[in-house]
Backbone:
């Protein structure tokens, strides 16, 4: 919205700033950060008023001695604050006619709605698993596929979603419409991987900050013809709006971390985690770095793989590979404190983000 002030730059020179994606991205990040910081206490009070305390999803899966019962009084659905902060910042700082902006916004709100219904079932009916997993997956695939198809139909980007880029390679590994069958899997996988990581105070949201910042860099380089040519990455018309959106996401997460760090005042729940992971996956698809996201989101990948491996091996042999899954609970069983787990995973997330960015020069 503020971008349109640049139309009056001839009357007032400083309005020219609103043309620049760097200025708008910084503004979006600060707006989302301040919104989540300022509105945090009100959000906590409202969630407590409506008794938004979800059933412990690890009850019956983890020994009671590893479950912090004090967290039963901590409200869930705090993801509403993150979503509101991102939405406010992006509406202010994005170009509202951008298809990229609308694809990310609608997908985020739709995934947040799925998470909200899931959280509501947990809160209202004290159901540990919320809505059925299969139903959740179906809706996630519809949302992801719809957003990707929408962008592929846009002038200037048609056919670009058909490219499958591989880290360390200059040319696409594959150019085919069948790639669009694979890309929704990336979005849905990212959405659920962040959800699985959300098991300790500040863990998922802290790791999301690093991933969002890395994806913002990729989006910026893909929006700039000189950088895109120099780095041998696809140039995507209009993708600069994803930079603004990604930094709004990072800012909202930083502000939310103030209230979510140990001991958490609120949890983001599926309302936040499904939406955040899905947006990260969509940005990766739009900038054609789907496989690079596996590196950038290394912590999320490890968390998801630990669950997959645990379930597969247990069904096959009746034995467990990890003491508990997702893997952050394995380290809890080994005696790591919650703070040790969270900070060490943050460090790993930062390393993975830098490794992902390093692939830009290794092509």
Residues:
């Amino acid at each position: 919205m503020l971008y349109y002030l640049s139309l009056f730059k001839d009357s007032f020179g400083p309005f020219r700033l609103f043309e620049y994606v760097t200025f708008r991205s910084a503004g979006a990040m600060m707006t989302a950060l301040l919104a989540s910081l300022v509105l945090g206490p009100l959000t906590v009070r409202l969630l407590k008023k409506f008794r938004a305390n979800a059933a412990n999803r690890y009850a019956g899966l983890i020994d009671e001695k590893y479950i912090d019962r004090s967290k039963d009084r901590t409200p869930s659905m705090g993801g509403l604050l993150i979503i509101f902060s991102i939405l406010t910042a992006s509406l202010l700082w994005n170009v509202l006619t951008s298809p990229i902006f609308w694809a990310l916004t609608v997908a985020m709100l739709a995934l947040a709605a799925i998470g909200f219904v899931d959280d509501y079932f947990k809160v209202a009916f004290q159901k540990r698993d919320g809505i059925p997993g299969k139903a959740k997956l179906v809706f996630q695939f519809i949302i992801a596929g719809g957003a990707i198809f929408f962008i592929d139909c846009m002038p200037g980007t048609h056919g670009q979603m058909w490219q499958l880029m591989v880290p360390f390679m200059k040319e696409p590994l594959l150019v085919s419409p069948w790639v669009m069958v694979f890309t929704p899997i990336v979005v849905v996988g990212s959405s659920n991987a962040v959800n699985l990581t959300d098991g300790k105070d500040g863990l998922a949201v802290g790791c999301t900050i690093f991933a969002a910042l890395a994806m913002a860099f990729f989006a910026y380089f893909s929006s700039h013809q000189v950088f895109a040519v120099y780095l041998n990455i696809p140039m995507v018309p209009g993708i600069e709006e994803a930079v603004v959106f990604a930094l709004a996401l990072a800012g909202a997460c930083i502000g939310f971390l103030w209230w979510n760090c140990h001991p958490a005042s609120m949890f983001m729940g599926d309302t936040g985690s499904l939406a955040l992971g899905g947006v990260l996956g969509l940005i990766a698809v739009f900038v054609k770095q789907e496989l690079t996201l596996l590196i950038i989101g290394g912590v999320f990948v490890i968390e998801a793989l630990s669950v997959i491996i645990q379930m597969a091996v247990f069904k096959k042999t009746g034995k467990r590979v990890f003491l508990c899954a997702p893997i952050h609970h394995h380290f809890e069983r080994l005696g790591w404190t919650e703070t040790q787990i969270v900070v060490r995973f943050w460090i790993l997330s930062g390393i993975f983000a830098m490794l992902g960015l390093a692939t830009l020069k290794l092509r």
